[in-house]
Amino acid sequence: MATFNLKINGETKKVDVDGSTPMLWVLRDHLQMVGTKYGCGIAQCGACTVHLNDNAVRSCQLPVSAVGEQEITTIEGLSENGDHPVQQAWLEVDVPQCGYCQAGQIMTASALLKKNPTPTDDEIATAMNGNICRCGTYTRIRKAVKMAADNS
Amino acid sequence: MTLVKTQLGRRAFIKNTGLAGGGLVLGFSFFNSCKPKVAEAVAMELEMPKEWYEINGYLKIGDNGVVTIMSPNPEIGQNVRTSMPMIVADELEIDWNNVVVEQAPLNTNLYSWQVAGGSRSISSSWQNLRMAGATARQMLKQAAANTWQVPVNEITAVAGFLKHEASGKSAGYGEMASVAAELEVPEEIELKEHSQFSIIGTTKKNVDGKKIVTGEPLFGIDVQREGMLIAGLVHPPAFGKKLKSFDAETAKSMPGIKDVFSLKLYDEDFDKMAFHFTAFNEVIVVVGDSTWQVMQAKKAIKAEWENAPDISDTMTLFGNTMKVNFPSGMEDSEKHTSKLKDLINRNAKVARKDGNPEAAFKNAAKIIESEYSCPFLAHNTMEPMNFFANVTENHAELLGPTQTPEWMEPAVAERLGLPLDNVDIQMTRQGGGFGRRLYGHFMVEVAAISQRMKAPVKLVYSREDDMTQGIYRPAYYAKYRAALDENNNLIGFHVRAGGIPESPLFANRFPAGAIDNYLAEDFTLDSNITTGAFRAPRSNFIAGAEQSFLDEIAEAMGKDPIAFRIELLKKAETNPVGEPESNDYDAARYAGVLELVKEKANWGQQEAGVHRGVSAYFCHQSYVAQVLDVVMENNKPVVQKVTAAIDCGIVVNPGSAANLSEGGAVDGIGHAMYSGLTFKDGAPEQSNFDRYRLIRHTEAPKEIETHFVQNNIDPTGMGEPPFPPIMGALANALYKATGRRHYHQPFITDRPPLVG
Fold first, then answer.
1. What φ, ψ does residue B299 adopt, rounded to 5°?
2. Mean pLDDT estimate for chain B
3. Nearest C-alpha of chain B: how many angstroms from A93?
4. Are residues A52 and A93 in the same domain?
5. B556-615, pLDDT tens digit by residue?
6. Interface test with A, best of B292, B640, B691 (most A CBs within 10 A)
7. Is pLDDT above 70 for B387?
């Protein structure tokens, strides 16, 4: 066990865990921030996507000991009032079916738009390819990402 | 208005003071313990009343006119949490913006069919939901009439307001709620005419949308409780194996681990329903403080497994008792295929025979013959199986994702040795179902673990546990034959279909009834690999096979595939073969979706380079036709667009129904093209998404368009019907694009590969 002071969503959070614990479980089990989802545990589905600095990363493969001073943003901290352009577009297009993967989809999409504010359809699909939606909302996701790009 | 007696589901309309606490109900949330900032902001959007008045089991009205509507059924992504309350709200005659939706707990006294299965949520509750709203509307009118001393038939109720025109009196629902809650439930109520619907038939967005996009706790796996422990399971690595012994010394000494023990779920004489089954009745349980610690400790367990014997068991399904066999041995996919290929060429059980198919084939000028197959599939809900339980000496509280709370409750009670009344089950939002959560052994497991640990416990399956634990979509195999005469007329049709462990055959579905000489046979092969319902069971294979074969017949006859199907349906409608009631479809509605898709897709007028396939199927009382467009890019077929036409009766929420149509298309394309679960020495060869391939963004259609048939038929299924036919449309489009027919799913295993 070791103590880590983590910068999450603009706040410093202190946790006492084994250094090998993935950020996914630190968030979910130790900080009760359950918006970041467990899907596969091997970085194949994208449900656990968070931002590390400005990059979309799979928190299931990010040991807490590797975070250091880097800023983590989770779905809970993407915007103050749930009104990030990507979140708004998701609501406007009414994307979710079961909704389980959508936090991860939104975190990947928002990281994409930060780097590439006007992505093409192919760039969207490629950037989102690591995020599985078992309900098959892919066409709505693409539409929402484009809408968010237009509204940003 | 239609006058109906409030007889059906009447218990829900008799005021339940036990639940209501004398009329006043306080809102609660089982996620109170972890509430991020955003949750408060969301809750602020609608001002909550000071007091709630329960009118019936489906709704309560606040003193400020806000209405809480209970959504009785499990929400697995089919959006019933929005569309079921919409039906109540429409009959209640309330502004949708003043509605708060709450998930109802399992309550067999108040609700019926609290199940997410068979695409029946809306259809089975349609009348009850309407009556719930209409009863409350009537009681509010009566309350106003009593208060104002005017005849009730002079009161109007519009958008949450009661008016008496002659006296000029008016009041909001909130003002009359306390009086209404004290009234007797009326014996008869008036339901709206369909033309009077103001909410049903309009698109309402997902009521949980904001919570989903802000990451609020919603799902079973998100449940947190004071003192809650986490449990994980270790099950045998292969079907046909069982636990022999285990050494948990190291695991027990690992940080955060509370206990490691073996758990036998059911005794031999346990009264099992089909939905109670588990592949592995004895598992090793690891209990600890956190999920990661439990996952690590599981790896440190040294277990020995031994071969399981032949097992014969009985199970009940809707009152019928059935014998099930799980033969011993380690199975593998290659052997499965060779056995199925052998059985497909042997005579099988005749399920339906019309005319003289033997003579038709004997006299045929030409016979077309094709074989089709599909592998086992894992459901792979994005949220792995999990459940929470807090079992004390006299009571069990369960909370989590299940499609069948009502059917699981007796198993939980029996396993715990508690009376049924002492078991309370609540449902969270669910990260997908697809049939997997119909089988709730995980509820019995977590309840038994909590009872033993004397603590609240959340059981969480890892992805690997989830994918290798069984209850798969069965593997199926079918052979179709068609007999044509010298003028290319279709004179005979023969289907033989089987599977492990069930046959996918629907002998009385189309084209039965449309062909004079028809033979349908089925066969099964026992297995110790457990299977269960998977979105549109059996249809999810046979639709694609049949619709691919019809395409082959149309081509051989030189006919347009849509015209050919419509011609057959015309015959089934006007001059059906066999007893008309034996044909399990409405030929006119079937042809209707084909006509609609033909028009909307501009069939026959596609752009150069676009290759099209069509398919149409009937299941869950609904009709779906789909046209799928493929283009070749870099010598690879790419799905461009899907156009769907659907007849599911009245469409309650067109926006979310369209979402299901889109999801069904993507799901079907994905599974037909990419997915499969194979076995070697009894063990699944895929255990996570690195080897089990699911469709991804780049592989999804660029565009999906859905058109609904407009009619006034009571709603029928919507969750499952768009899934099965798309596999036929895909195969038929791939044939046009590549010149090769695709018979064996997943199509990427086709050699040489067409798609990567």
1. -70, -25
2. 93
3. 9
4. no
5. 999 999 999 999 999 999 999 988 788 999 999 999 999 999 999 999 999 999 999 999
6. B292
7. yes
Alpha helices in B149-232 (DSSP H): 173-180, 209-213
Check A81 against B215: CB less than 8 A apart: no
Identity of the residue in A25, A39, A94 whose CB atom sits nearest the CB atom of B463: A39
Q: Which of B430, B688, B697 sits opposite A44 (nearest CB)?
A: B688
Q: Is the pLDDT of residue B299 over 50?
A: yes
B290: closest chain A residue by CA:
A29
With a cut of 80, say whether residue B41 has pLDDT above it: no
- B266 at A interface, C-beta within 8 A: no
Q: Which fold has domain B338-377+472-749?
A: Aldehyde Oxidoreductase; domain 4 (3.30.365)
- Please provide the average confidence, as pLDDT, over all residues in chain A: 97
Tokens of B305: 């497994």
Q: Which of A30, A58, A77 is the last residue of a domain?
A: A77
The CATH number covering residue A122 comes to: 1.10.150.120
Nearest beta carbon to residue B429 from set A39, A99, A129: A99
- CB of B705 within 8 Å of a chain A CB? The answer is no
| Proportion of chain B above pLDDT 70, given as a percent | 94
Question: What does the block give as tokens for B717?
Answer: 């299924």
Using the predicted structure, report yes or no on whether residue B25 has a pLDDT greater than 70. no
- For residue B598, count other CB atoms closer than 10 A to its CB: 20
Kindly report the CATH number that applies to the domain delimited by B2-204. 3.30.365.10
Domain spanning B222-311+380-467: CATH 3.40.50.2300:
no
Selection from B99, B132, B103 nearest residue B10 by Cα: B132
Is the separation of the CB atoms in B256 and B300 below 8 Å?
A: no
What is the tally of structural domains in chain A?
2
The pLDDT, as a whole number, for residue B26 is: 36
> How would residue B47 be classed by pLDDT, with cut points 50, 70 and 90?
confident
| Model pLDDT, residue B18 | 39
Q: According to DSSP H, which parts of B558-618 are helical?
A: 561-574, 587-600
* Pair of tokens at residue B366: 């030409």
pLDDT of B44 reads 47
Domain boundaries, chain B: 2-204, 222-311+380-467, 338-377+472-749
**B662 CB-near residues (< 8 Å, 6+ apart):** A136, A137, A139, A140, B642, B704, B706
Counted across chains A and B, CB pairs separated by less than 8 A come out at 203
Among the partner residues B462, B695, B700, nearest to A41 by beta-carbon distance: B462
The domain spanning residue A45 has which CATH number? 3.10.20.30
Spatial distance between the Cα atoms of B751 and B747, rounded to a whole number of angstroms? 9
Contacts of B82 in chain A (CB under 8 A): none
Of B429, B666, B698, the CB nearest to A126: B698
Same domain, yes or no: A26 and A66: yes
Let me know whether A13 and A36 are in one domain. Answer: yes
**How far, in Å, CA of B65 to CA of B180, rounded?**
13
Question: Is B29 in CB contact (< 8 Å) with chain A?
Answer: no
Domain, as residue range, for A123? 85-151
A136–B78: do the CB atoms touch at under 8 Å? Answer: no
B11: pLDDT strictly greater than 80 = no
Best B204, B210, B212, B666 member to test A by mutation, with max A CBs in 10 Å, is B212
- Same domain for A72 and A6, yes or no, is yes
From CA B463, how far away is CA B680, in angstroms rounded? 19
Q: Which segment of A105-119, B31-45, B372-386 scores lowest on mean pLDDT? A: B31-45
The pLDDT confidence band at residue B13, using thresholds 50, 70 and 90, is: low
